[in-house]
Amino acid sequence: AQKVTQAQTEISVVEKEDVTLDCVYETRDTTYYLFWYKQPPSGELVFLIRRNSFDEQNEISGRYSWNFQKSTSSFNFTITASQVVDSAVYFCALSDHPGDYGGSQGNLIFGKGTKLSVKP
Amino acid sequence: SQTIHQWPATLVQPVGSPLSLECTVEGTSNPNLYWYRQAAGRGLQLLFYSVGIGQISSEVPQNLSASRPQDRQFILSSKKLLLSDSGFYLCAWSGVGEQYFGPGTRLTVT
């Protein structure tokens, strides 16, 4: 069965600190996709990144970076020089065939989320 | 570009009353559509998904139902709400990639 674990329930940092959010997943599929979403206090989930299982290159987007390691089934998310606006709940998710048709394929399995508080 | 709308934004309903939440998507055709529920302090639970008009799959048996009367419209309903139905309801759409979420409806059942 597929499963996503975000062991950190809450993290609190001071502005400008770097912070890493952990995500560990379980799947028997050889092809799968991993995602990160941000949920600010307004509630709407904002898509951040999608990574497929064949691409282990790390990704950097501004202050955000993602470290995908298949050997440890982890897809960790680092925010560099955190800002107050980064305060949100962050969800990691797993899917075998995002956007596919039929069955349960394409559905996202979410972790329970990590609440990040960045204090000024 | 694609946009997804949900209404109402907030709703307070008594136990036993009916429910109808609506979700519409603009700027895309034949999307996959999803309903999720997020209870307070918990993760997201997939309730229903649809791959086309009239095609609904339920992930969790409960007193909720979903319908897709048009290609870009997805409706979540209940005949009689329970206290446990309170939560934040999110609609999402996907094409051939990631899912994009609407602004959500916060439902409080009293």
Of all chain pairs, the largest interface belongs to: A-B, 22 and 25 residues
- Count of DSSP helices of chain B? 0
Shape of chain B: globular
Report, as a whole number of angstroms, the end-to-end distance of chain B: 38 Å
What portion of residues of chain B belong to β-strands? over 45%
Major sheet of chain A: 6 strands, mixed
Highlighted features:
heterodimer; A: mainly beta; six-stranded mixed β-sheet; four-stranded antiparallel β-sheet; 12 strands; B: 110 residues; mainly beta; 60% strand
Protein described:
By secondary structure, chain A is mostly beta strands. Chain A has strands at residues 3-5, 10-14, 19-21, 24-26, 33-39, 46-52, 59-61, 64-69, 74-79, 88-95, 109-110, 114-119. In chain A, the strands form three sheets. In chain A, strands 2, 5, 6, 10, 11 and 12 form a six-stranded mixed beta sheet that branches. Chain A has a four-stranded antiparallel beta sheet with strand order 3-9-8-7, with no helix packed on it. Chain B is mostly beta strands and 110 residues long. Chain B is built from no helices and eleven strands. In chain B, a hairpin with a 5-residue loop joins strand 4 (32-38) and strand 5. Chain A binds chain B through residues 35, 37, 42-47, 50, 91, 98-99, 101-102, 104, 106-108, 110-113, and chain B through 32, 34, 42-44, 46, 49, 51, 57, 59, 88, 90, 92, 94-104, 106.
